[in-house]
Specification:
20 helices, flat, four-stranded antiparallel sheet, five-stranded parallel sheet, alpha/beta
Amino acid sequence: MLIRDLIAQRIADAVEAAQRDGAIPAADVPAVALERPQKPEHGDFASSLPLRLAKQAHVAPLTIAEALVPHVAVDDPVGRVWAAPPGFLNVALSPAWLQRQVDDVLAQGAAYGNTQTGEGRSVQVEFVSVNPTGPVHVGHARGAVLGSTLANTLAAAGFDVTREYYVNDRGTQMEIFYASVFARYAQALGRADEQVPEDGYRGDYLVVLGKELAAELGDRFLSMEREQAVAELGAAGLERMLDAIRADLARIGVEFDVWFREHSLFESGEYDAAIAELSKRGATDKHDGALWFTSAALGDDKDNVLVRSTGAPTYFAADIAYHANKFEKRGFDRVIDIWGADHQGHVARMKTAMRALGIDPERLHIIISQLVTLRQGGETVRASKRTGQIVTLADLVDEVGADACRYFFLARAAESQMEFDLELAKKTSADNPVYYVQYAHARIAGILRQAAERSVTWDDGDTSLLADDAELALIRKMLLLPEHVDAIAATLAPHALPHYAAELATAFHWFYDHCRVLSSEPADAPLMKARLKLVEAAKTVLARTLGLMGMSAPETM
């Protein structure tokens, strides 16, 4: 049980005991909510329960708080309980209990921060999933970092996580891509009359791809029937583009368990089955030559086309079949999609489609990742696969490094638009939060190295000697990681992690500035060993936090 939940349970038990003893009137008790006070003098936890209970009990909030104090058990981990105006119940953790947690962190090691909230329930996180018609650009990269960090944290919270990329390998955009690939291939073989379609993809990456295909496959596609040549050569181009996407994402530590192909939904009959099920449930209508999903009758703002008058399915129709596959065929308990800002209007209708299929839409969570603007010298570069003016993920990693990419993309809530400051991301000073956090880890590693070089051991360090305010503050900050893991699993908001990492780094720097760790004086040996234990535990927690964010934990800088 998390310490937060244990404290909440003690307060709930105290209310029950106080009502039983007649210290407060009987009344319906709301759930115990806890907050972390900003000021240390207000304790480690504060509950506003007396304020919320006062109206029902017809008793002043402070009177209720004071009546509850003697009923809250004061033993590990609770050190003190008191009432505070206008009606808060404050709880401070026992210093002795805090000191013992250093050994507990070290015992858990790399597993520290894990919780069992998920209880093994299955969760699919689908992210990136851009049409494989060009390189991954900075906008896609933000969703990639959000998705992989969220997946890491859900796994730490005890969920069975599947990371998935949905490959849109059919439809109009792929046909345009295939035609563009063929044109660049033909041009590489001297066919100057072959032009990229007017609405085709014109980036330099396709020129390179065309040359590679020409060198590897020769000119045999030029003598083929054109439709067949475009299809076969385009498919080869698709596979190379997917290889490039995998490689680019791997550079920032993003990998997937499943690469799901859209075309498999049509080959397996799952697409036809999903559309037939909607029709069976009375959720479709044919008019104007098209098949429509009657979503307006289910609360959406309008009906939506499933199959065009040409007989071609819409992206929406294929996506319905894909989500039916997730829930009904593969049986995920929860599905989390991370989509780009251009999919905002798709959210409500997808949830409506799930309800129409008899799937609880609350099992589907859709996160919209807002736009990214690169800032450097006041110049903004827009990303466009069609025009070729692309700021690719590979370019960004070359410029600032993978760790800066991950930290900066993660530092803002997904629903907030963000500016990526390239100049700040490259700074080697405390102004750069990436440098600041990683420097804390490197500093810790340096302290432990120095101790080892002096043949100092600290396994027998007595943590009961850790009584300085800075020492206890660092321990308190370390103990927040499991709570953050649980909170992120509930809110699906992983941007809390970089902020926590910065706070943990600050707590360590403050401790190190106020408490001398290494000493050659024999009289200082017991306290030195205790502090080295604390330093090692801080390294464990900071490394785990960086790991959840997909960042490296450098030993030197």
